[in-house]
Write a structure and sequence with these properties.
Layout: E1 4-9, H1 16-28, E2 31-36, H2 48-58, E3 65-67, H3 68-81, H4 101-109, H5 120-130
Parallel strand pairs: 1-2, 2-3
Length: about 140
């Protein structure tokens, strides 16, 4: 029997902390589905399409990234069909535990250096979206 887990989030943007959790989960489970939420309430900096694209590039060597609404419906349906369906929470590695998308986003918007928190793909997306690259420390 294979195990499938869903990792939902807005991933605005996907950070090294997210990547760490996805990689660690992929060692524990047969399939990891990264579900990128539309979540317009949170007023994301990047569009859903941009966030999905960044996630796909950052975790290209892992499993597919898919739209949150579909995966959320699927997860709820699976729970209804099988009451043994469980949700599992993993914490990030200690050296990445302080990273949050909202803090990284705020630092980038203010022109700060976020290169230690995100992949080069996300760094380039910030530069394109914000019109400036990171400052060197």
């Amino acid at each position: 029997m294979s195990t499938r887990v869903v990792y939902p989030g807005t991933f605005d943007p996907i950070t090294n902390g997210h990547k760490d959790l996805i990689e660690r989960a992929s060692r524990l489970f047969d399939e990891v589905v990264v579900s990128v939420a539309a979540s317009e309430k949170k007023k994301p900096l990047f569009s859903l399409e941009e966030r999905v694209s960044m996630a796909q590039e950052v975790i290209a060597h892992l499993r597919a990234v898919s739209d949150f609404e579909y995966e959320f419906q699927l997860a709820n349906m699976n729970r209804q069909l099988n009451s043994e369906f469980e949700t599992v929470f993993l914490t990030p590695s200690e050296h990445l535990s302080f990273i949050s998308s909202s803090l990284v986003r705020e630092i980038a918007i203010l022109g700060g250096d976020v290169q230690q928190f995100v992949s080069p793909v996300v760094l380039a997306a910030f530069a394109e979206k914000l019109g400036h690259g990171p400052r060197k420390s």
